[in-house]
Amino acid sequence: MPTAELITLLNDLVLLMTQSPLTVDDVVHHLGKPGTDEYGQAIIEADNEAIEWAMVVAGEDVEPSFVQLTFTEGLPAEALHTAFGESHEPPRVPNLPPRAIFYLNPPGQTHSAAVIADIQDGSVKTVTVRRDIRLG
Q: For tag attachment on the chain, is the N or C end more exposed, with fewer CB atoms within 10 Å?
């Protein structure tokens, strides 16, 4: 899948994750159809062939906390910087790839989001979109 389409997919997911109300089913149906549900993690059978694996995790309040996507092919890390702007690099965790975090605050939404990208050799294969409560 072309890079621009993956960025559009992520932008759409960020907009979905920052609206309220929001349910796990909303996220599942946005990305595909329900797979298995284990330990509060809903595995999604994605409709998009560019997504190898997808999961949504709900918090205690039953609203989705985050969505994790694994792409079939890597997305250039530079494309995320172009699309989402400046990133923040959290401290490195041993045995895990470096990460870039993009904090996004779409206007008019009740929540904000963080796009967390695992980067290896300039490419992103796994992305987490975390739903955050908008402060202030």
A: C
**Are 41 and 52 contacting, i.e. CB atoms less than 8 angstroms apart?**
no
- Determine the Cα–Cα distance for residues 136 and 23; give it in Å rounded to an integer: 24
For each of the domains in the chain, give its residue range(s) and CATH number, in order of start.
3-133 (3.40.1000)
- Kindly report the pTM of this predicted structure: 0.93
For residue 69, the tally of other CB atoms under 10 A from its CB is: 26
Non-local CB neighbours of 63 within 8 Å, separated by 6+ positions: 20, 21, 22, 23, 131
pLDDT digits (tens, 9 = 90+) for 76-128: 999 999 999 999 999 999 999 999 999 999 999 999 999 999 999 999 999 99
